[in-house]
Amino acid sequence: MTTTATLFLALAGAVLAGAGAASLPAWAAAATVLLLAAALPAARWLGGSLGRPLHDIREAAEKIAAGDFSARVGPVPGDEHRQLAAALDKMAARIQDDLARLESMERMRRDFVANVSHELRTPLAAVKAYAETLVSGEPRDAATRAEFCREIEGSADRMARLVDDLLTLSALESGARSPAKEPVSVMRVAAEVVAALMPLAQRKRIVLRLDPFPDMPSVQADRGQLKQVFTNLIDNAVKYTPEAGVVRVGAAVAGREVRLSVEDTGAGIPAEHIPRIFERFYRVDKARSRELGGTGLGLAIVKHIVEAHGGAVAVESEPGRGSTFRFSLPLPA
Ligand SMILES: Nc1ncnc2c1ncn2[C@@H]1O[C@H](COP(=O)(O)OP(=O)(O)OP(=O)(O)O)[C@@H](O)[C@H]1O
Ligand SMILES: [Mg+2]
User: Fold this and answer.
1) Whose atoms come closest to the Cα of 240: which ligand?
2) Which numbered ligand comes closest to the C-alpha of 300?
């Protein structure tokens, strides 16, 4: 007979004897015996499971030590066991998260190196080919030689732009270039960029317009960075809008923020590309963007700058009809 059963019989006997002595009603004594009978399997289960928490904890710890960071102890009885198991589970979850983050960073680093090499390869190959032809003495006529030199210059410009954009992004990402905040007139910066890009628009007979917004309050911003945001967005709008289209730059105040928009009547962006459009090197039509001298860093820079200013970026687009890029900047409290 097991210890628990012996204990039960002893207890039942004691209850019945006590019932006789204390003249408990017979039904109360019978109910107590029944209760004890019901408690027997529970006591047995408890006896078995009380020995398991440490076993479960040890098993999970061994799995974690072997590199399986998805192992968890789960619920166990007993306060101290529960706390120990919870601490172990928390530690495993933390290691698992850190590992996933490291893996994702490593993947991004590898992609980044591959992307940069890829982007440099095309202009470098062009420089090499034109230079080799010139060195060989062919062609002889001055006009063709001048054209080859211009091609070399164009490729060098492209590589310089790529390196500049990469340095900007890396400075923004490392936080080394945190925005130097000063009161800035958004409308004045927008007007300067519109004026600078007007010749580009006119070459395509695109109407480039800045909607007036009188008495727009100043924002606290880094002037140079804000200029870069407008430049990248308006440059895209002009670049990706066919001849004779319209690009409108607008501003509004809503609550405690300024909302800016750059709207075009261009090619638009298919919905499936929208979630990735602000990623580094992401381009909807790689060939077309490259042909236009793009490397896919412009919008990544925009997002970084706007977010570093406490604002947000968004885009709405309808393929064939156009796109609207919006960003917000908080107004000083
Ligand atoms: N206004 C727009 N209309 C249509 N497509 C756009 C527009 N703006 C951006 N895109 C798409 O988003 C992609 C990413 O834009 P982003 O400015 O980051 O790179 P890019 O213009 O290709 O190159 P970069 O700006 O580095 O010169 C573009 O290649 C283009 O496919
Ligand atoms: Mg761009």
Assistant:
1) 1
2) 1
Whether 278 lines ligand 1, by a CB cut-off of 6 Å, is: no
Contact 245 CB / ligand 1 (< 6 Å): no
Global pTM value: 0.73
Residue type, 219: V
- What the block records as the tokens of 110 is 């590898």
Q: Compute how many other C-beta atoms are within 10 angstroms of the C-beta atom of residue 153.
A: 12
Residue-by-residue pLDDT tens, the chain, 333 positions: 443 444 334 334 433 444 444 444 554 444 444 443 444 444 444 444 455 888 888 999 999 989 899 999 988 888 888 888 899 999 999 999 999 999 999 998 898 899 899 889 989 999 999 999 999 988 889 999 999 999 999 999 999 999 999 999 988 888 766 778 899 999 999 999 999 999 999 999 999 999 999 889 999 999 999 999 999 999 999 999 999 999 999 999 999 999 999 999 999 999 999 999 999 999 988 777 777 778 899 999 999 999 999 999 999 999 999 999 999 999 988
Residue nearest to atom 28 of ligand 1 (CA): 283
Distance 191 CA to ligand 2 centre (A): 19
What the block records as the tokens of 120 is 């440099």
